[in-house]
Specification:
The N and C termini lie far apart (about 80 Å). Strands 7, 8, 9, 10, 11, 12, 13 and 14 form an eight-stranded mixed beta sheet that branches. A five-stranded mixed beta barrel has the order 1-2-3-6-5. By secondary structure, the protein is mainly β.
Length: about 260
């Protein structure tokens, strides 16, 4: 009996618990804001390979407003649980692991690809304005997460790329805005000015900012809202996109509260 007790006690004292390691939910690689923020010590240079972890899908463009297959497929991702500026990026020509993965809002991914700040594609943009994306990104599914809550911003910030560009590819909300003028655009695209015209006549794509921010149908059909000149919008939520000017793309008509 004494031998049994000693053996049992020795065994119990020898089974020390192993150290517990809980990996960070966002992963060990860079966050999006670390590679995008101009003030970040790890800011990525144009056309360099980067690895990002903890990127949550906020929207997948499945609308194809031009109905020719050329205006769908862009995926917008944002740092897990983050409202920090520069936390969003879009994916160009992505592929996924596993190969049959169909990503949707809330999917958390690890990504690697070429970081790009395109200023000429070949359409030339305004000085200091860039189309920011991860090109040929490879995404690995990690887990299901919550889509980050939208950041409330001032619509006036989107008239200035230096101020509004920090929210590019992120989910935002603006409140108490008015449509100025009737919708415009061709080939299925529709845009609505959210501020009065800053200059008279057409504005060239490479003309310097400020430029009027627009509400666009890049992600959803907005025709049922019947927006016209002087329509007052209580709030609009959507992804900040860019092409010549900064835009807000609602994910559905439910994102627009009249």
């Amino acid at each position: 009996m004494l031998f049994t007790c000693v053996a049992s006690c020795d065994s119990r004292e020898g089974d020390l618990p192993s150290p517990t390691f809980v990996p960070p939910p966002a992963g060990k690689d860079r966050r999006i804001h670390e590679i995008r923020d101009p003030e970040s010590p790890s800011k990525a240079a144009h056309r360099t390979q980067v690895q990002v972890s903890g990127a949550v899908v906020v929207a997948v463009d499945q609308f194809d407003e031009t109905r020719n297959g050329r205006s769908a497929g862009t995926i917008y991702v944002q740092d897990l649980g983050s409202k920090e500026p520069y936390s969003g990026i879009s994916l160009f020509n992505p592929s996924f692991i596993p190969g049959n993965l169909r990503v949707g809002a809330g999917d958390a991914l690890d990504l690697r690809g070429e970081f790009q700040e395109n200023q000429d594609i070949p359409i030339k943009f305004a000085p200091g304005a860039f189309l920011v994306q991860l090109s040929n990104a490879i995404g690995t599914f990690r887990f299901d997460a919550d889509v980050p809550a939208p950041v409330e911003i001032d619509i006036d910030d989107l008239a200035d790329y230096a101020k509004g560009g920090k929210w590019l590819n992120m989910l935002v909300t603006v409140k108490n805005v008015t449509v100025h003028g009737n919708p415009f655009g061709g080939g299925g695209r529709r845009s609505y000015n959210l501020l009065p015209q800053i200059t008279s006549g057409p504005v060239a794509c490479d003309a310097p900012f400020p430029k009027v921010p627009t509400l666009v149908n890049a992600l959803a059909d907005l025709a049922p809202l019947e927006l016209t000149d002087q329509t007052v919008i209580k709030s609009v939520t959507g992804v900040v996109t860019f092409f010549c000017n900064l835009q807000i793309a609602p994910r559905s008509v439910a994102d627009v509260v009249l």
